[in-house]
Amino acid sequence: MFTKFxxxxxxxxxxxxxxxxxxxxxxMGCFCSYVPEELVYAAGHLPHRMLxxxxxxxxxxxxxxxxxxxxCRDVLAQGLKGRYDYMKGITIAxxxxxxxxxxxxxxxxxxxxxxxxxxxxxxxxxDHARPYYNAELIKYKEALEKWTGKxxxxxxxxxxxxxxxxxxxxxxxxxxxxxxxxxxxxGLEAMVMVASSFMVDKKDHNAELKRILPELKSRNxxxxxxxxxxxxxxxxxxxxxxxxxxxxxxxxxxxxxxxGSRYFWNSTEFTGNLMxxxxxxxxxxxxxxTKDWEERSRFPHILKLAHDFNVEGVIMIQQKFCxxxxxxxxxxxxxxxxxxxxxxxxxxxxxxxxxxxxIRVEAxxxxxxxxxxx
Amino acid sequence: MITAGIDMGxxxxxxxxxKDGTVLGRAMETTGFEPxxxxxxxxxxxxxxxxxxxxxxxxxxxxxxxxxxxxxTDSDITDVGAAAKGVVNLEKNIQTVIxxxxxxxxxxxxxxxxxxxxxxxxxxxxAGAGAFAEAMSRALEVSIDEFGQLSLKSDKAIPxxxxxxxxxxxxxxxxxxxxxxxxxxxxxxxDAIASRIVSMVRRVGINESVALIGGVSHxxxxxxxxxxxxxxxxxxxxxxxxxxxxxxxxxxxxxxK
Amino acid sequence: xxxxxxxxxxxxxxxxxxxxKYYKDYQEARSKGGLRWTGGAWSFDAIPAGLGRDVYNVTxxxxxxxxxxxxxxxxxxxxxxxxxxxxxxxxxxxxxxWGSMYLGKYAFGGEYPEPDFCFQDHIxxxxxxxxxxxxxxxxIPYFCIDVSVxxxxxxxxxxxxxxxxxxxxxxxxxxxxxxxxYQDELLIEAVxxxxxxxxxxxxxxxxxxxKPAPLDEKTMYSLYVHGTxxxxxxxxxxxxxxxxxxxxxxxxxxxxxxxxxxxxxxxDTQPPWGFLKVFRYLEQxxxxxxxxxxxxxxxGIWEDKPDGTxxxxxxxxxxxxxxxxxxxxxRVLADWNLSKPEWQHFYDPNLKTKMMLQIVKQWxxxxxxxxxxxxxxxxxxGIMENRHGIAEAGVPVMTFEGNMGDEREFDxxxxxxxIDSFMETLELDIMDExxxxxxx
Lengths: 374, 257, 440
Description:
The complex is a heterotrimer of chains A (about 375), B (about 260) and C (about 450).
Chain A lengths: L2 H8 L1 H11 L4 E5 L5 H6 L3 E4 L20 H11 L8 E5 L3 H13 L4 E5 L10 H20 L5 H23 L10 H11 L4 H16 L9 E7 L5 H7 L4 E7 L4 H4 L9 H10 L14 H11 L4 E7 L3 H16 L4 E6 L5 H20 L1
Chain B lengths: L1 E7 L3 E8 L2 E9 L4 H16 L8 E5 L11 E2 L2 H12 L5 E5 L4 E6 L5 E6 L8 H10 L4 H9 L12 H13 L4 H20 L8 E4 L6 H11 L3 E2 L7 H14 L1
Parallel strand pairs in B: 1-4, 4-5, 6-9, 9-10
Antiparallel strand pairs in B: 1-2, 2-3, 6-7, 7-8
Helix pairs in contact in B: 2-8, 3-6, 4-6, 4-7, 5-6, 6-7
Chain C lengths: L4 E2 L5 H17 L6 E5 L15 E5 H10 L1 H13 L8 H12 L13 E6 L4 H12 L3 E5 L10 H22 L5 H24 L9 H14 L3 H19 L2 E2 L6 E5 L9 H7 L3 E6 H5 L4 E3 L5 E3 L13 H13 L2 H4 L4 H14 L4 E7 L9 H10 L4 E6 L9 H14 L7 H7 L1
Parallel strand pairs in C: 1-6, 2-3, 2-4, 4-5, 7-8, 7-11, 11-12
Antiparallel strand pairs in C: 9-10
Helix pairs in contact in C: 1-8, 2-4, 3-4, 6-12, 7-9, 7-12, 14-15
């Protein structure tokens, strides 16, 4: 049922090339899920969030020191290897220093026509962030208009916001189908559904979601749900890993990843000032740990997800060297433990030692099972 | 004029005796726990092979990790400098030298006269060095020679993490558990080391004429992986493990002039 | 026979005394009814100064470096932090600091003095999170200012005001948190001191353009540190003026830091604090490191001069302007700090490469050493692009890997070997073999 999403995800470059051929626009590479894609879309371009390819590579060492996360190097490798040779624009919305280097090195070594760095605030917990970010987004809008040579009208912007909100709503509906005792969607399918949404036109994505949703509601997966797990942590589109987890007696029923729920959880709320509304949507988003201070506002959200989706255990995964998540992992583990949620911590690289991880996941599941007996 | 070059490597000591640009003798010894004794023994062996007397040697230059403790030396030169000198002596047009020792890999960018313009050394991680291949061959219970040959039989690329030796090792264990054929694992290990090395050499830039030196150049599996990763031919000079010692002996003759 | 004469710095004992006084003042603050706060060396320390003259702080980075210098204590701290489950590749200052907090041990003897509040600014991924944890662990209030508004060349009113508005907010928060009345005249005084100390430090670094260099990097580390402790403090600003005058004297009398100076280098990022002998090792080759973008540009504030050179930034006071209001003081403070050279590369490594090449040219250097510092995500950000850019410009450059605060990640022997190779490419040999052996 999710074939189309897998297809898009696996043949992301083919899709992008075809999109360019059919539409009068360019592909905009987005670094980080904080890029306000609505603006890009309203300007007539296709936002595409770049992910890695999970292959070892030898091309980034001259540009990014090995102490930075494997994901940021994997993404740069895609550019250096010419896999995005059709892509004309790049945009980053400021978050971690790791991905920021991917952007600056891309700008230095990969051909492009347009690049923009959005100084997205890191302190989202101050009201001053709102007018500030609004003004920064207006600069981005103007830069896009200059590049495209045409105005982004209020109407096109509103249409883009509506389309994006609809996409968020539809993905929420799919996630809701994982709440019951027999989830209608596997964790793998959900992961690929969200990841493909970074890459395809939301019109296409929405159409496909609308097509499958009615069938999905009456779907029977014919598999044992096993332990209901949540997966939280840094960037994660490791399909091999989640597939393995779901093959040993567990189902991933929800996540807190920027490549998962965090990407679409909240919508743009309209108050009459569209640019400010878009700014607010990103400021009010479930934050990346690097923006989650002084309060740790993400933790209660994670707990609510765990309760809403009847989670029994949490797998915490982290890209090796990811400072933002490393700064949250210890208190998060304590927080979840205090709320009776056992955790398993795993460190990810471009590829993972699947055999070892299987043993650890199995041991974790065994532990969850034992607890059920008492 | 007769000179000697001693390469005090962390695993092997190599000596070259040079007379007016011609190699008269060479010898190799395991470094062991007594490097100074091993070096003296190695020097004696090389002198004997060259058919000269110790007293006839005009100048001795040492190189390698233990160059400061080498016996009977007049001067020393770093590994990087010696490698560059040794290579251009044999292969005039080389611009990039890849030197892989037991504990360390290096990429060296040189000018026509053997002058070093830039160099890069793999950082603390051992995944980019000879010792790692040996450790992995032990994990597969084959000799390092077999390990190299085995790799050539594989036509399958299995991605393996090359960022960290510990991670890589656990991936090898995973592959063994998954009953992956040994030759495919061997190739995966060689690909991973080659990728690590090439990654580091890219820092100084890779030119068309690349030379590979050091003991690892005897491992055909690794050389095959390296060529694939570099996407270019690799020249392996004669007696690739003696290049450092040769470079030191050449330096010695320059210093006597 | 040395090429130049040398002599120890006359104000050296004073530098030492000021540093110890700083840590002692903090320790004793509470018993005298004063306030203690903790935060980063990048924080706007002039702001809490408005709470009174009895307010003292400890800045985490130099404190972490002091711990690193004491290898045994540092090891205990690291282990205490790791025992709590924190990753080993996190900021090594932070791990040292947290360890000291967990163990309750102060690097300068006695117990870890409990702070009253945390006051920080967010520059890298760990900065805000560092004191978030301190505040949680110690159950004390916390305020952090976001300065991520882009490189100085692109700062406009909106960007400046985002920082200034948070500063105003922080003052309201300080009053509420401490119950004290905020005194604008103390803020203005502190801001003026900060402008004076950071501009004077740049002047000191500027004098190092002379040959022979009056100061070397190892010495500079013991002097720049005061700016990381309390750049807003009058004593520090006065001390830097005294130091500047002494450095001028050294220049006029050709007093060298390294008597055999024949090669001039610069480094970058924080050094491995437990292994400052790297710089002594260079001296055997007649090489002097005249500083780094880090020593120049973390505490020194600079500007492009009309003639295309780089020099100390002119303070508003030097321009004849007076600061009279809170808002004006905060605007000046924000603007001044956003122009910090060491802050620019967080947005774009090319800005740093450009500044480093400017130093190479203007200070007439022969090469650059880059410390691939695994202990600091922020200052290692973009460092390989810097290597690439510097090499492309034809300037000899070497890298060595280490960690400013975790000695387990520094391989002394290998680094020294690498320096040997670099010296060889610069065609330098050891001038004094026996001295070299003694130091290695």
